[in-house]
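Continued from yesterday's entry.
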Amino acid sequence: MGNLDIQNRFIEDLSISADYEKVASKYRAIFEKIAQGVVEREQQRILPYEQIDWLKHAGFGALRVPVKFGGDGVSLPQLFQLLTELAQTDSNIVQALRGHFAFVEDRLNAHKFKSQELWFKRFVQGDLVGNAWTEIGHVKIGDVITRVTQNNNQLLVNGKKYYSTGTIFADWVDLFAYDERTDQHVIAAISRHASGVEVQDDWDGFGQKTTGSGTLTLSNVAVEADHILPFEQRFKYQTAFYQVIHLATLSGIAQSAVATFIHEVQKRDRIFSHGNADLVRNDPQILQVIGKASAQAYASESITTQTAEALQRAYISHFSESEVKNIQANNDAELEAAQGQVVISDLVLELTSKLFNALGASASTTTKQLDRFWRNARVVSSHNPVVYKEKVIGDWEVNREPLPFVWQIGTSPKVGAA
């Protein structure tokens, strides 16, 4: 907990640390089962309903819920370490659960002001939360078409979202909307099973194919008043949190790619006449390819762990009495997550491409799906543009321009202006 002065009444309600091996051992057998069908799911684009259900019933969604309320109580570094392990088996599943863990984190922070025992109970019993924030089409930057309105005594939500990652597998939806009653941005926590909720599996990306990132349509969906959460109260380090899940995903992809290519090299019996050894596994140039990729994967995981430590400090600082320390901890978390993204994205994209230098043209067969590592890493790395992260890091370092904790995407106001 460092030197942060945590108010005593919160200590037992926090998720500060757990016995990592004890917690991980509950899920590793499930990870092994998940790994068995990953190539087939990639080939045939089979959504991992069954695999996510295994995790759900094992309590994986309650990893961060404090032990006091029935969860595992893991710290953020431990959460991201376990997500990296899961990403080694199937990176799509980690991304599908990204929205869930962000909503859990928000409820953990909200517990400082109002008991979140009801939500904790839901997470412990296995409820999962999907994500639905982004609108596409001609939605001007800064605008939100999804609206909360009131009809007599009933609150209703109408709208359409894309990139609704994980929602197709979920019980609840973490929905970004505009509340016309109060003229403010809100999070509407709606039941995935409510009347008027429709989820389409229409994500057509060339990577991360089975994350359930399709279209969500909401037609007069009823929502309870206490499930309308002002967006301004969202946990401060959310952008960094979302990004570090991507870093854990990339780290898992890197480790899986290295392990898979090592196996391919070990069993390869074809050599080139102008190679350097009688077996590929003894060729110094091939060993160099593997060695560099291994080092890059190690660096990726190490950086992810470092950024997760910064997030943990931001989480704990939220419960301290020092607003100055809280602001500093959140700035550090946002900066380190951005720096980690810039470095890890390049590391993993490079290693998942250059590992093919260790094998021949046969490595391109779709039967093996070895290209999935690069494809998945490329899509994960595309979510938050690296070039803009590089810019905001530089602006912070040179000018101390505040880091953007919240940002949006939308159609330029210049479009159609003429």
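--- second protein ---
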Amino acid sequence: MTTIFAHGQAVLPDRVLDDAVLVVEDGLIVSVSAALPGAVPRGAIDLRGAFLLPGLVDSHSDGLEKELRPRPNVELGLDFAVTSFEGRARAAGVTTCYHGIGYEVSVRKERTIERALQIVHSLQDRASSGCALVDHRLLHRLDARDPNALAALQRALDGPVSDDLVPLVSFEDHTPGQGQYRDPSYYRKWLEGSEGLDEQEAQRRVDDLINERASRAWHRDVALRWLSDAAAAGRARLLAHDPVTEEEIAVAAKHGVAVAEFPTTLEAARAARAHGMDIVAGAPNVLRGGSHSGNVSAAELVAEGVADSLSSDYLPSALLAAVFRLASSPVLPLPAAVALVTSGPARTVGLTDRGTLTPGQRADLVAVTVDRGWPTVRLVRTADDQLGLVS
């Protein structure tokens, strides 16, 4: 099956090709060229000057959790939430989505290990249904201090591994005083705002959590050693979540970590670059103009050349918004900004078949206009759509 897209501004890796014609055959890009007068075949899809981008690759999305529980004390059915969030992601231009699966027990985030396994099953069922509108994949998020979480993750990873499906595992410790909440006052303020606690009660809750998790700090080394062995055997691709210091990055590199995810300081990001790690920053951080937890600005990481990709974290629409905000400033030209949500994350997660508008790549495509300064997704086509694999 051949599909032709015409009269779009194709964002290529190194430039924007005005009035482009892109040809797709059997779900793959065959050619991208400038339109010639009278040379565009009848039946081509007219993009009317919209930007044509590769489909967005989101390496870290927690949005499904919010879809499951849109309001306090309201929980929707899991299969419905997966389908509903899928539509939200696709409408934001996301064609490959790595869903964060939290292997942990967190009352604050309503996470349990049993729930994590249920989400995995539901996503896998949707992915194999022939109805999915995006490519659903998994990002396994391991609480470094939870022995039961590690045991569950070991079972989840006990199976065959293919080259393009090496599991992603994020090594995390969300104890106040660590990582994202290295300043525990931000955790306390979150409790005050979200649960209506006064400062003293919120501080008591923070202290109790720190003390409770201190009894399991020994498990960090156990979990990291196991993950290191899994990475060395090619059974996992490791991400260090919320690294703070150069020393943390050095330890992570020693254990085979390939990706620094949401470094909280410029020091950590620079150290990750020195160790050859891919670096992921948050698109909402760019959109907001800074971190909500007092950490380094993602735009600063981009400007310093120590960010390879942006993830949605919890808001799919933030990806394109961040791209066009960066491209409208002196920070980056548009092709480099687009790479942060396409080829950059594709490389980060180990996918080589998508992320650029070049021959041989998957024809995951997004057409975008910019209206009053903000991007609007006008069309999304995936390789599976064009192969007729989505029923």
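The first strand starts at residue 2 and ends at 11. Residues 199-214 form the longest helix (16 residues). Will compare against the first tomorrow.
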